[in-house]
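User: My instructor asked us to take a sequence, write out its structure as tokens, and then describe one feature of it. I'm not sure where to start. Here is the sequence I was given:
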Amino acid sequence: MATWVKLSGRPDAWTRVFDFGTGVTANMFLTPLSDAGTLRNAITAGGGGAEQRIDADPLPTDRWVHVAVTYGAGTAVLYVDGREVGRNTEVTVEPRYFGNHIRAAYIGRSQYSDPYLKAAVDDFRVHGRTLTPAEVAALASGS
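Assistant: Let's start with the prediction itself. The structure tokens for your sequence are:
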């Protein structure tokens, strides 16, 4: 996934840039502010206690930021403005495991009763393969 986000001030905890899945047990999401005060990408097939995460510094506010997440070969990578900001090399769940069973595909909304995201989102893309770092950097540069 890759998108541009412009947060309107400090986000509320657990708002979502995106949240895809089959419900609260099997999903993947990107929150600009976790309970730990971090930008967090997580994926799970076993509920919140089984999340496989990447945490990074929070996103800047009041300016456009490019955010991307890639999954493949047991590794998830989180990028901000084309630069890698976090990596998890022990990911056993990938978006492809949700198959055609995705019941929710939200942008700016959570599958939980979390607040809505106060932001602008533009050029949201879902790719059918793992992007290379060079491809992510090209998206972030507008190429």
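For the description part of your assignment, you could build on this observation: The mean pLDDT is 93. Try explaining in your own words what that tells you about the chain.
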